[in-house]
Design brief:
With about 210 residues, the chain is of the alpha+beta class. The chain has five helices and eight strands; from the N terminus they run H-E-H-H-E-E-E-H-E-E-E-E-H. About 30% of the residues lie in helices and about 30% in strands. The strands form two sheets. Strands 2-3-4-6-5 form a five-stranded mixed β-barrel. It has a two-stranded antiparallel ribbon with strand order 7-8.
């Protein structure tokens, strides 16, 4: 029960401005979830939101035409979870990136952003919609989580919406989240809201780190 409550708090991710989430983190967290309930919470939170994935190693690449429009359908392995991420590319800019010398093929890796459409634990697949290619990537498997902060310190990684106002925490301030459990245990939601608001205000003003 405590673990589920912690998961619910962790997944209070901001939806304002369609903030992009870390796809590698999502895939790893989902693959390691212990119960169907935890997987359901993760999937429902991520549904329809844009996620940024790195190190996707292509296992299948097929060119098709639909309605006279060229589309490239791709399946690629996400390294931290070993799930297959599946998506279609139709944007002219993304298609051009695929064809840039050397042309992208099976075994190459991509970094992409796409809206999470569905995830299936039994098939170990993640389906994305409205996917665009960010850049060609290296197929390097890193231990643990891939941080979106490697690419953008402004990426929103957490938000708290149970206070007087929503508070968003960006990747550069992620260390604040390490204090969440202690503060929540001692003072509850009000104390957690106050801590986040005060510390983020200090940082925005160039004050000391906690």
């Amino acid at each position: 029960m405590k673990k589920t409550l912690a998961l619910l708090l962790l997944l209070t991710v901001v939806r304002l401005d369609a903030a992009t989430s870390n796809g590698n983190d999502f895939a790893l967290d989902y693959s390691e979830a212990k119960t169907d309930r935890d997987r359901k919470i993760l999937a429902e939170d991520a549904q329809g939101r844009p996620h940024f994935f790195r190190y996707l190693k292509i296992t299948d690449l097929v060119e098709v035409e639909e309605g006279g429009k060229k589309i490239v359908k791709i399946a690629a392995t996400e390294p931290s979870s070993l799930y297959s991420v599946r998506f279609s590319i139709s944007s002219p800019v993304s298609l051009k990136l695929l064809l840039e010398d050397p042309a992208t093929g099976i075994g190459d890796a991509l970094a992409v952003t796409g809206n999470l459409n569905s995830v299936d634990s039994s098939a170990q697949t993640i389906e994305l919609d409205k996917t665009i290619i960010r850049h060609k990537d290296r197929s390097e498997r890193k231990p643990g989580k891939e941080l979106l902060a490697e690419v953008s310190p402004d990426a929103v990684v957490y938000s708290f919406t149970e206070g007087p106002r929503p508070i968003s925490v960006k990747a550069r301030d992620r260390d604040l989240l390490e204090k969440r459990d202690g503060i929540m245990a001692q003072g509850g939601k009000e104390a957690w809201f106050k801590f986040l608001e005060e510390e983020l205000a200090k940082r925005a003003a160039g004050g000391k780190q906690p």
